[in-house]
Backbone:
């Protein structure tokens, strides 16, 4: 039986989604729990790798499940009973035969939260990047729009060109909203390179602070030169919100 | 020079605002930092005690400051440089001579956050009480309205009558709002008894779950019997939002 899980986690305690040499991965924790429940290894595949410290409220994973008597909702309950509170299974449901969480994903939606206030709110210190200086929202909005479309995103990716894979991606939507003292950066696209969203955010914050021009994004992308982009924004402001399959 | 500070903290790491025998109090951490900056003890008084684990986004404290050359904003910076990230000084300003954070407080506003969803969100697990079962919002709203006014609140306070002090308080506003999967309980009053807000919330959640009647609050208050109220809601959902001085 093919299953599809929706997973939420506080990334601060994890080395990211995928198994790595150092630290505990989210995938590993879930696979351990599945093994305890099912009595045999049950590998899962995630829709996306998230980096160390990045959160998720809607990660999707696929798995083969060999215990047809256990209903998906019971598996959700059993997993949540075993998993730590910083990692929750929001949903488990049957998926079409051959469903693959990564290959079938059409688009992903990421949210980056910036708290723009003189002093950081202690209650949001784990989910927002605190930026104390004034930010020009209009300039950031104009710049964000320039990321939309099909581009080579090498200039805003870490290790561009490792493995010589294509650096071309399509960003469908890239928007900035203001909600009280927060600046919310939402980006939806068919795929993202390593650290791409965080480098976009770091660049936009430099634009908002007047340290680079609002109309500089097109030339930055055209350069394909990572050294010309802004600093990578910290991981804890980023959250994988949703994976779309249609 | 009399000063007034606004303080925010994540209560999860503290034994409450006030110095106690067990655990570290918020007040203590600030007084230690003040002593390091000023070179002599500088006691502060808070507008309110908050219980162990309760958060604040707008606690107010008063103090005498004997270093007139240091401007209030510099003191804020110096304190935040010494304090841990779960405790921040949002504002320091001059206060009228004789200002007292507790005695001069006219009203306080508390917010209690409930996440009402099948599975808890790991990113809000420190700031929301997770209630998985369905809640009747209309019943909870009707019941909340019955707390408004001048009442003897013994029935919803812990240790009522210890010290034989008056248990009469005035609740000015008591409202329930829905925001996505959260139920937000806001209560504003001239003063609150020990665990009063959390017992109100625990009672309202039992009403929302159909385990007690929506019109039962008036009789509950009239009984002055704590055993008739609901369970005390957990501390981590509660936040002192604002203290009013006029």
Residues:
């Amino acid at each position: 039986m093919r299953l599809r899980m929706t997973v939420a986690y506080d990334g601060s305690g994890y080395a990211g989604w995928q198994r790595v040499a150092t630290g505990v991965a989210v995938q590993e924790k879930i696979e351990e729990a599945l093994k305890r429940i099912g009595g045999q290894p049950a590998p899962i595949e995630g829709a996306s790798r998230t980096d160390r410290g990045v959160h998720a409220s809607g990660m999707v994973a696929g798995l083969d499940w060999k215990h047809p008597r256990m209903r998906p909702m019971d598996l959700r309950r059993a997993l949540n009973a075993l998993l730590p509170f910083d990692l929750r299974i929001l949903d488990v449901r049957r998926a079409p035969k051959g469903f693959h969480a990564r290959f079938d994903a059409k688009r992903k939606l990421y949210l980056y939260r910036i708290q723009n206030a003189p002093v950081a709110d202690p209650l949001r210190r784990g989910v927002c990047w605190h930026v104390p200086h004034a930010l020009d929202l209009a300039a950031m909005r104009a710049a964000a729009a320039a990321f939309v479309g099909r581009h080579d995103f090498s200039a805003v990716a870490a290790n561009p060109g490792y493995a010589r894979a294509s650096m071309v991606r399509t960003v469908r939507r890239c928007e900035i909203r203001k909600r009280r003292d927060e600046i919310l950066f939402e980006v939806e696209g068919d795929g993202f390179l390593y650290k791409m969203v965080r480098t976009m955010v770091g660049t936009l914050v430099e634009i908002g602070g007047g340290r680079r021009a609002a109309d500089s994004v097109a030339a930055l992308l055209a350069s394909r030169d990572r050294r010309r982009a802004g600093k990578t924004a910290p991981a804890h402001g980023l959250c994988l919100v949703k994976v779309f399959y249609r």
Remarks:
- The interface with chain A takes residues 8-10, 55, 57, 76, 80, 85-91, 118-123, 125-127, 239 of chain B (CB under 8 Å).
- The first strand of chain B starts at residue 2 and ends at 9.
- The longest helix of chain B spans residues 26-38.
